[in-house]
Amino acid sequence: MPGLAEVVRGLAARDGVDAVVLVSPDGLPIDHAARGACDADALAALATTVLRPAARIGDTAARGPLGRIVFEYGGGLALLSVLGDGHALLVLLAPDADAGTMLFELGRLTPALASLL
After folding, report:
1. Among 44, 68, 87, 95, which residue's Cβ finds the most Cβ atoms within 10 Å?
2. pLDDT tens across 88-111, in order?
3. What distances in angstroms separate CA 31 from CA 39, 50, 78, 89, 105, one per listed residue?
4. Domains in the chain: boundaries
């Protein structure tokens, strides 16, 4: 089984992926990889900040635990996956990326990533 760094770099190397940031519960980047400039510190801090109220929406609406958030922007998608124990994975996709395939891959990889943390 590959380590965290290999998984992060493998995801970042996929077509349409602009950046990947593995986020600690404290809002710090554990690891990241990007095609261009990427402020991993700011992205990690913001991802953690967003997770708390998003989880509360699910609790209030009786939807169960939060698994993944999809943000749609003019410049592409941001996928934020909960890995457990406060860890998360942020994947930034280009506008023409195959989001469906990436969502499937994140669903498949989430348990493996969680076990590595």
Report:
1. 44
2. 999 999 999 999 999 999 999 888
3. 12, 19, 17, 10, 19
4. 4-116
As a whole number of angstroms, the distance between CA 12 and CA 95 comes to 15
Phi and psi at 33, nearest 5°, equal -150, 140
CA-to-CA distance for 41 and 34, rounded, in angstroms? Answer: 13
Q: What is the signed CA dihedral for 57, 4, 13, 95, rounded to 10 degrees?
A: 10
Q: What are phi and psi of 42, to 5 degrees?
A: -65, -45
Question: Does an H or E element contain 42, and which?
Answer: helix 40-60
Q: What's the pLDDT score for residue 1?
A: 54
- Range 4-116 classified under CATH 3.40.50.720: no
